[in-house]
Amino acid sequence: MESINGRSNGGQPTGGGASGGADGGTSGGTTGALSSRTFSRRWILGAGATTLLTTGLTACGSSDGAGGGSSTLTAFVYGDDAVKVQQGAVDRFNKSAVAKSTKGKVKLERIPGAEYPAKLRTAMGSPSAPDIFYNWGGGSIKAYQDAKQLVDLTDTIEGDPILKSGFLPSVLAAGGLGGRQYGIPMRGMQPVILFYNKSVFTEHKLQPPTTWAELQDINAKLKAANITPFALGGADIWPELMWLEYLVDRIGGPQVFAKIQEGDASGWGDPAVLKAAETVKELIDDGVFGSKFSSVSYTNGGAPAVFAKGKAAMHLMGSWEYSTQLGKFPDFAKNNLGWCAFPTVEGGTGDVRNVVGNPTNYWSINTRAKNKDAAVAFLKDCASERYAKALVANGDVPTTAGAAKLLDASPNPEFAKFQYEMVEKAPAFTLSWDQAVGSTVSTPMLTEINKLFVGKSSPSDFVSALKELK
Asked: Which Gene3D superfamilies does the record cross-reference, listed alphabetically (predicted)?
């Protein structure tokens, strides 16, 4: 699919995207375990599942044959390896009593990753629009909301105990717009995590930082030992974005970007944005990323190699870094890869528990869906334990509320539990900026971020340029 961000839906980078979480390719050598940077999640349809259909969503009544047969709903999905989880859900639903009672079935249409956004846009403007479709929430669905093509699921979720309590609140909220819910989580979480090289930290008697002052002290000690503090794949741009996402959150809280996400460009003028940009410039001027980061790529394995080989001690990256390292440098991944939360920033108002990244992927329903009752019933399976187990078996960390007890079956239980608890406890989970805003904003935004990192604009110039984005 077109690069919404260069990171695949499952979490792996794709190879040359501008940034963040859409493509579905894998970084060469990554394994399937924990590498589906897709966003996923869970629980099983009970005998009373049809009670959720009392929420005002009525079937439109299209059927496949004469005599009022079952209607078949088309579901567009991102066609990567993780799609087997969704195919399993389709197979279960089509054989269920709920499918029979709602007179509906689901047909999965797999769209090749590189083609997904463009094909979805084209289809949504045609008579062959899908009834159900995979997306990233936030800015990725705003155009469809504006065109009144999305079923508002807020009341449906609030009125059904399984959907209301079945998912982690921060993830469920991240898929909405304007305080309304338009999606049900259906893949695994992909928070951005501060990774560190345990052997380097042990050798230099360092501890994972919890505050910005501690991080600065670590940076100074590493540079004195001729070790670059952080690996950074600046050639791809989207790894640079992660720094601003966390700094703005820690300095000003999640409400700063929430204002921008809702379409108010004046939010870029918030003091937290300028302070974050100034902090980035200080890091660059201080040599924290080395002198050649702008020519290093994540997607071709450059930044992961710098990190794994001990040339850099830390790496701020999405949770798919684990699977990337497991594929390229398995000994490092198993023995020396450490992880922790992004530190607090002194004087900032953001909660250290807040998370940025890709909460998950979502299923949304087209207002033109032939059988909305069946569509909602199908989406409910994403909250099932059976669905969550399938995600865990695929190496994903589900976003369902009860998934913690399932994570012992994960390829790396310790890492899976860290991610889950990180997201479970997060007061806010900010969607990657380039996914949260529309393409008319994300592309120039990434350009301005890169200019800031390579020294072609000052922090104040950066803020001024972003305030002009509409």
From this structure: Periplasmic binding protein-like II
